[in-house]
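Take one protein record:
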Amino acid sequence: MFHLLSEGHIEKIKAEVAKESEHDEFDQKSSIFHHILRSDLPEPEKDPARLKREAFALLAAGTITTAATLALTTYFILENPKTETRLRNDLKEVTACYPKQIPRWADLERIPYLTGCIKEGLRLARFMRRNPRISPDHELQYKQWTIPKNTPVGMSIAHLHMDPEVYPEPYRFIPDRWIGDVDPRAHRNLVPFVKGSRNCLGLK
């Protein structure tokens, strides 16, 4: 389904760009694909197959991951009546005027238990696989270890998120672990959007 949507959208944009003249003003609502097709990138970089893969990555990253995380977080909240009741009580004041007035993001951020629920959902749901990196030409030095060239190096988000020394009872949904005196390692290990140059595009 994603591939079909991507293909149709890209063909439509290609037709729009082909009709433009050098003097036309670009539409302010242009997409990333308008930008790529108007650019001076080599033609192979504008190949429909390549653009379709990019479209699939953008659509999937912005929908599937978010939906899965929200679904799992909602399940854990509703599965435990104490968790659900506490969260509803904490949200009562800030949502008193809803739906006439949508709560401000700044007000929601001030609710510790809501933040705890969100972080626990991210911790348990986001086991995205990370491709290892390789240094083909040089050895790498990390502290006292020398890593030979051409050695795949990577990290496992699952191991970071489920470390029992950092998160006691790691398979349980415990929002309170993020409230009060939080172990600094808990924040360090929480990397649901990955780190470094290949982190989630939505954070850039």
